[in-house]
Predict the structure.
Amino acid sequence: MLYVVLSLFVLACFAPLLHRTFGRHSGNVFAILPAVLFAYFISYLPLISQGELITQRWLWFPGMNIHLSFLLDGLSVLFALLITGIGSFILLYANRYLAGHPALGRFFLFLLIFMGAMLGLVLSDNLITLFVFWELTTVSSFMLIGFNHEEAESRQKAHQGLMVTVIGGLALMTGFIMVGFAAGSYELSDILQQDLTAHTLYIPMIVLILLGAFTKSAQTPFHFWLPNAMAAPTPVSAYLHSATMVKAGIYLLARLQPTLGDSAAWMLTLSAVGAVTMLTGIVLASRATGVKKVLAYSTVMALGTLTMLLGLGTEKAALAAVTFLFAHALYKGALFMIAGILDHEAGIKDLLKASGLRHKMPKTCAVAIIAALSLAGVIPLFGFVAKELLLEAVLNGSHWQISLIIATVIANIFVVLVAALLAIKPWFGASLPTPKAAHDPGIAMLLGPTVLATLSLLFGLFPFIADKWLLQAAAKAVFGGEITTYLALWHGINLPLLLSVISLTCGLLLYSQWARWRQLTQGLERLSFLGPEALYNKMMAGLVAFAAWQTHVLQNGYLRNYLLTTIATMLLLVGWAMLRLDNFHLNLNFQDVKIQEATVFLILLVTILSAVLVKSFLAALALLGALGFAVALIYVFFSAVDVGITQVLVETITVLLLVLVLYRLPEFRKLSSNANRARDAIIAISSGAMITLLILLVTSARSMEGISSFFIEKSVPEGFGRNVVNVILVDFRALDTLGEIFVLALVAIGIYAMVHLRTGSKPVTNADKRLTSELKIAATSKGDAQ
Amino acid sequence: MSRQFNMRSLILSTGTTIILPLLLLFSLFLLLRGHNEPGGGFIGGLVAAAAIALKLFADDYPSAKSLLRVHPLQIVGVGLAIAALSSLPSLFVGENFFTAQWWTLYLPIFGPLKLSTPLFFDIGVYLCVIGTVLTAIFTLVEAEH
């Protein structure tokens, strides 16, 4: 399975290149891979549906129990099928929808990375691996949402989505570490065997994990980022919001349900937050007029419903949750793609402007109606099966039956309204002029919604197919025990059916009064300043202001102040730590000091004093150079020849660099007051004294043998080199060296950008001005790189 | 600054034509012997950078720049890439990331030649150091013009 996930990332890396080769067919070519993967996962269904559980493991950080391990069971295979199946349709669709876009290659790159990350997320058996993929989906979705990055709005919305989910991700990581600590393993297959509800860390654990899941899955009060993410191109919205990104939080809750779910805290939180989200989402959806906004808010509603169902914790609820999730992915994927078709082929983004399109777009209209009927939960579509099960699960729930059923029925009434808006409003009634000449799209764009809508119908008529092969096993994974309920289209005339009929009737009535309903609830808009989005904006503004303030204080543009701050901070921290040391004794031993060492020491002392006191740049530079060579001599005395050579070379090159800037310095004169000089002298002398003391302390307080003997011993047998310094640099500690040369590269870019930006004006002290200049640096270095 | 470059010394210039190739050769020598004797990528890189800087002082900036053919920042990038890539071969034989791999080639005339990922890593360091130092020097010189 590692290769399955990796294949998507590899294809992603080559996507821009392949896009150039295949031109306008590239998306169709890319769609082959997820389609193959879809078939691969289908081939596992016979095993999985018999309750098999497949795990595979590759070692990653064996020392920290972090592995690239994968788990395929009912729940993950359900998600994997949705991700790859809908994914290949999205690629076909996007290829046509964004045809001719100059950055299409980059689009496919991000989309395939996202697909791989999402697949990795649902297949991971290791919490840490799962978290890595979780963050990868966040980052790649940021790129996708902000794909039209020339538009300020698009950037801002992408940023918002990123901030909200990243904050949640941080909480999630802490929660995962706690789970790993409590369960003694990061492997889900181990964790799921345990019940952690009695652990002392249980409450902090679930608070953090829920925070992560709720932000990702747009639960109230974090729901605002999801509709805003509609700034993305429609194929992205269709993919991220039907089957993938926003369902990641739901996946996590469902996944951890057997381990964490059996407590009042978990159940009540999930039910309450889920129900509130459900109502918030659907009421906002009923007021929206943009096609994508309506769909986005109704997705919020669906996510709330799923959370609520997971909070019920019963066997029926588990089955209802996976059924609803599956049904939702099918019809919501189709509806989002139809929203894109409306925009692409007719130029319609707003429901108010759409009417009577059924003659011009007959095929689209038929597909839209089937998908919307499934959304409304009308017999015989799969949405009906899901909704009956939802009502039944809530009715037979363990707590709050009355309030939850009322909430569910109200939500369902509005769902019917939303479905009617999508099934009737654009298609029937008098024809309105459209911005573009409306017509049905080609096969590439219609294929996805058609197949998804057909599946809604097929699984509605024959629910046992989905049940037997997929949903039973998925529900079992969520519930953590055997499932004895089965899906059926017709349960006879019972209470859920009655409630369904009531919501259908009320929903249609509401549809006829839609304009009036919007007018009635107009007051809600005035409350938006109290909403979470307003709060988020205030928080962000505060953060930026704080950052500007502290930058102004700490980074005021004067190198001398930076040095002063850095050294004084180090002095305080280390000095304080040293003062608190208990056994403070030094082993000073001057007996084996050799004559040449003492000589070099004297030279050092004389040069440093002269360097401070001389009154010419050239003399000071020469003295500093002499100082460096004397230090190199010390290295050689202590048989660190490599370091000595390096020191000599660095001194030489420093002199070269100094010569180049020497003539640019102001002439040598006294610029600072005596008080300042005294202050600087005190800080310099005390920091030097402190470092000396520190080194003496460290060498005399060493309790264990140093690591150097290990390196010296292993250098020849394991590193095959007699030069220990070099073996350490390029073999034993090569990762450190890699980091260091990376810093070198950054320094080079920094020097280049800084000098080439040179404005020649007086130093900038104002924080705002500096920000603009930094942006300029980024722009210049980027431009130069290209 | 320009006053300095106008004072071109014939002796230094002629000397450099001879010393420069030797210095560059010496830097390669230092790079390759580094695993067993004092030397290595960092030291070798500094020597090579100093050699090119010598050309800059002996002749002029354009001739030093043309000696390099590419922008020093590109050298940094190539070096970084080589160093980073040398971490990967171990993964293909199932060992941990960055585990050193050694291969011995038997050449007909020269005898056995030992190649290893640490060597490639050191070459990456070498290029990175040359690129960084020369970026700094060239940028400062350019700022003069």
The helical segments of chain B are 2-6, 10-33, 41-58, 61-68, 72-85, 89-92, 117-144. The beta strands of chain B are 102-107, 111-116. Residues 2-144 of chain B form one domain. The first strand of chain B starts at residue 102 and ends at 107.
